[in-house]
């Protein structure tokens, strides 16, 4: 009888299995429903694998989790980003930090991470069973579980069970069958489809330090950072972070909202007004298209021309001819452009799911169920999700490491 069966051969599942085996468990199995374990790790970050984020203080790290910020304070005090970097380094995967804080293997290839995890699992005796989906779980009166799996003729008994099935509904259904309450899953980390023809004409333009304000019903969500204009609306790190924190509100409001954008990177309105008025003197003979006040120099040229058009101003007009009314329209468009949200971006584009097993029913010190002794959780199956930038993988490493260690410790008592 296996001491531990891990359902799910992804990041969290491998981390838990390896940690348990390294701590002394002799019979550890990973059941992966698909033919390719660690598939999400392999394709993440465009094939480079954004393993974690250079956020070394657990108190700051938790702020990147729209669901799970407070509950993760304890787990991250035990295993956070620095621990993940050290863990992978000790197993042959060195990481480098990029300018935005994301951390990748120095090889810039996710294959390095996948190979390291598979090699380490094999070295410590973890049995990997691909194309074996966990289909049903029966708790045994004597302790442990009877598992039914695809490809198994008879139920297999195990002492401990860890569910690390990610966002797949099968794992949530198993947790629910074992008495757990589920927080309804909704998409998170997605782009927004906006009304406005001019945005489609600017597809591919990226603009940094953009303050965003999303009004969803009576709620307001704010973020600031780089946005990318797409054929259907907006994307980019700031927009993805915004939708992560607003995921539930947007879902409840059927993805109808109002997005307010400040293209001036949050310039002081009074100073901008002064510079616009001064431009009528300093840039008198220059066309609006070719001259700009200092506060507006960072706006990309294509975007600047589109904003002039949106303000109903002729780009060929000299600054000296800009009327007071035209100036007011321009400032309004620059600092308070308002776009109607029509829905999410292309179907299937969302990166993670918000929702899963209710955290109140999990002892996060061990990642063990409060409902069913011997049942553990790790990764996205729990109601925890992070913003883009390596934070979701970090939760997988942390929860997997804690669960694997706790399971092994339980056998030594």
Automatic annotation (TrEMBL):
Keywords: FAD, Flavoprotein. Residues 186-352 form the RsdA/BaiN/AoA(So)-like insert domain. This is Aminoacetone oxidase family FAD-binding enzyme. The keyword Repeat does not apply. Its cofactor is FAD. The keyword Transferase does not apply. Residues 3-404 form the RsdA/BaiN/AoA(So)-like Rossmann fold-like domain. SUPFAM superfamilies: FAD/NAD(P)-binding domain, HI0933 insert domain-like. InterPro entries: BaiN-like, BaiN-like_dom_sf, FAD/NAD-bd_sf, RsdA/BaiN/AoA(So)-like_dom, RsdA/BaiN/AoA(So)_Rossmann.
């Amino acid at each position: 009888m296996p001491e531990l069966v891990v359902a799910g051969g992804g990041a969290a599942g491998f981390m838990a299995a390896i940690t348990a085996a390294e701590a002394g468990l002799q019979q550890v199995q990973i059941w992966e429903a698909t033919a390719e374990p660690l598939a999400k790790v392999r394709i993440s970050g465009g094939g480079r694998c954004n393993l974690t984020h250079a956020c070394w203080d657990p108190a700051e790290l938790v702020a990147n989790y729209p669901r799970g910020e407070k509950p993760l304070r304890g787990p991250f005090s035990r295993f956070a980003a620095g621990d993940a970097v050290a863990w992978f380094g000790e197993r042959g995967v060195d990481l480098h930090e990029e300018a935005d804080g994301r951390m990748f293997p120095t090889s810039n290839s996710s294959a390095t991470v996948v190979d390291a995890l598979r090699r380490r699992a094999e070295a410590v005796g973890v049995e990997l069973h691909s194309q074996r989906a966990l289909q049903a779980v029966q708790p045994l009166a004597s302790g442990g579980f009877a598992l039914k799996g695809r490809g198994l003729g008879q139920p297999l008994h195990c002492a401990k069970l860890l569910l690390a099935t990610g966002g797949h509904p099968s794992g949530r259904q198993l947790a629910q069958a074992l008495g757990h309450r589920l927080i309804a899953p909704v998409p998170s980390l997605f782009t927004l489809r906006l009304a406005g023809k001019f945005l489609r004409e600017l597809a591919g333009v990226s603009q940094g330090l953009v303050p965003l304000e999303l009004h969803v019903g009576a709620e307001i969500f704010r973020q600031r950072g780089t946005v990318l204009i797409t054929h259907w609306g907006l994307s980019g790190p700031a927009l993805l972070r915004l939708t992560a924190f607003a995921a539930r509100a947007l879902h409840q409001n059927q993805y109808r909202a109002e997005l307010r954008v400040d293209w001036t990177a949050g310039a002081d309105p009074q100073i901008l007004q002064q510079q616009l008025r001064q431009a009528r003197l300093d840039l008198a003979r220059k066309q609006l298209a070719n001259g700009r006040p200092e506060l507006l120099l960072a706006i990309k040229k294509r975007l600047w021309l589109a904003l002039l058009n949106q303000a109903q101003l002729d780009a060929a007009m000299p600054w000296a001819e800009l009327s007071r009314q035209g100036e007011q329209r321009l400032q309004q468009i620059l600092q308070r452009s308002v776009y109607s949200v029509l829905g999410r971006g292309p179907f299937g584009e969302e990166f993670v799911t918000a929702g899963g097993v209710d955290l109140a029913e999990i002892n996060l010190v061990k990642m063990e169920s409060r409902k069913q002794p011997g049942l553990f959780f790790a990764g996205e199956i729990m109601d925890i999700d992070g913003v883009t930038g390596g934070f979701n993988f970090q939760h997988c490493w942390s929860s997997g490491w804690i669960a694997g260690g706790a399971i092994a410790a339980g056998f030594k008592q």
